[in-house]
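Please predict the structure of the following assembly.
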Amino acid sequence: MIPWFTYSRPNSLKDAVKQLSVPGTRLHAGGTDLLGCLRDGVVAADKLVSISHLAELRGITRTGNGSVRIGALTTLTEIAEHPYIMEHYAALSEGASSAASPQLRNQGTIGGNISQRPRCWYFRGDFHCLRKGGEACYAVAGENQFHCIVGGQSCFIVHPSDTAPALIALEARVRITGPQGTRTLPLESFFVGPQKDFTRENVLDAGDILTEILLPAPAANHRSSYRKVRARGAWDFALAGVALSVRFSNGIVQLARIVLSGVAPVPWRVREAEKIVTGKEIDDETASQAAAACVKDAVPLAKNEYKLHLVRGVVEEALLAMKQA
Amino acid sequence: MEKEKIDAAQESSPGITRRGFLQTVGIGTLEIAVVGAVAPAVQAETRQRGNLVPLTLKVNGQRHELHVEPRWTLLYVLREKLELTGTKPGCDRGECGACTVLIDDRPRYSCLTLALEADGHEITTVEGLMHGEQLGPVQEAFVQEDGFQCGFCTPGQVVAAEGLLRHTANPDIGEIRTGMSGNLCRCGAYGHIFKAVQRAAILRK
Ligand SMILES: Cc1cc2nc3c(=O)[nH]c(=O)nc-3n(C[C@H](O)[C@H](O)[C@H](O)COP(=O)(O)OP(=O)(O)OC[C@H]3O[C@@H](n4cnc5c(N)ncnc54)[C@H](O)[C@@H]3O)c2cc1C
Ligand code: FES
Ligand code: FES
């Protein structure tokens, strides 16, 4: 059974921030990740503060200037099935619908998906690893077939979210309310890699609540997609994946964003690959060059070299599919 | 091991134990015991360790007034406190689907849902899919199509199918595969399960 905690479900954001500022407190959104972490002793909590009664954090709305606001408590199912998101932000609806299983998507929120903890089996298991305050990352010399091939340093997790790469490709920003007030930042700057701080995955501090995600108004001639490679058809996290967002003009790429999943401790944007396709048509050659650029800096661990091939394959495939779409 | 010991110690903390208390008074009388002391829903305040928290659950159309520990999952409360043992514990970590229930018509894992989070929602378990003493259409379809072998995953499969069909009345095979992808079957009866869902779509009409 999950160890003891007390529970509170405030009715205002202000109250929630106040309660969450107390050490030993943890935020509960859908709970699909948090409860597993508590049960396995990955994290401890004296008290859970559930934000599920904060109705203002729920739902998808279009603002006056055409941008879209997604409340942090919106479920993955609600996002995956939303006609406007499907039409204009395909990468996001594909990311949301490819995560976990139907039951988990009905409960898991977008805020929780972005803020979920890593799935490294040493971190989740009975290992006092670096990320949990221990001495070493056991993946380095251990079973590292599902670990990162790029961006790792001292700790070699991959970021597990399927929606975050899509959102970064779509130039999403996030709004965070905390004890010091409210701030808005690009989702890209939300994530923190191990070279900066191996004890956290994002910028959230005690008392911080991610309240909403903001997507820019859909542009003309814009397409996006998210492709994920996994070992089985449901439940599985990405072995490798790619989110693309491309603006075309007469078949020529005007602007591209390419963000990888399953390969790095944070959603991994590859600017060099973006540059390669920009100003050109997507064809076999540009697709293959961009795919090669995606793994140029990768240094696989002993058991995950296969990811290099997966990444190249999935990027190439996704780019060519986008051209044909 | 260590954790289990702690849990056991907490279960039997001072005076009357929580489990003992619930068993002594029974679910029925507990309703009377708590009247007056209970606010309608969970309040926005911290509860002390060791205290039970009042909770109203609406399961299969019936209201239940309970006292629960904040850490109890919906799965635990359904089985151990409400004796609705149709909902099965499998992995207890969101990876098998045996514990599937409907919450407001949507399938969810009751093992990853705190009981306190379910208040104010309509919960449907496999027991709630009966038509009186008769099997409901989805249950009937699983019998007709042999949609199981050992049967352990079946309640979860049936509830997941019901949830899928409430949302998509005429699913194609792709939609059935996706809709049922959150439920594992150790016996590998998937072919029959998918047929059962197709039949269920017809029987439900
Ligand atoms: C078996 C299984 C398979 C899964 N497969 C996938 C997969 O393939 N792809 C994928 O992307 N995910 C997967 N998940 C992960 C994840 O649980 C869900 O995707 C879900 O979206 C998490 O959301 P939640 O609301 O349940 O989060 P919670 O469990 O409530 O929260 C997760 C974490 O984020 C914090 N948090 C949540 N919301 C906020 C907020 N608004 N502000 C600040 N902090 C917040 C919490 O404190 C907690 O630390 C899987 C989970 C399981 C159990
Ligand atoms: S017991 Fe809940 S998913 Fe396995
Ligand atoms: S029938 Fe045996 S597990 Fe599915």
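The pocket of flavin-adenine dinucleotide (ligand 1) is lined by residues A 26-34, 36, 72, 76, 99-100, 104, 107-109, 111-113, 115-116, 160-162, 204, 209-210, 235-237; B 94-95 (CB under 6 Å). Chain A has a mean pLDDT of 97.
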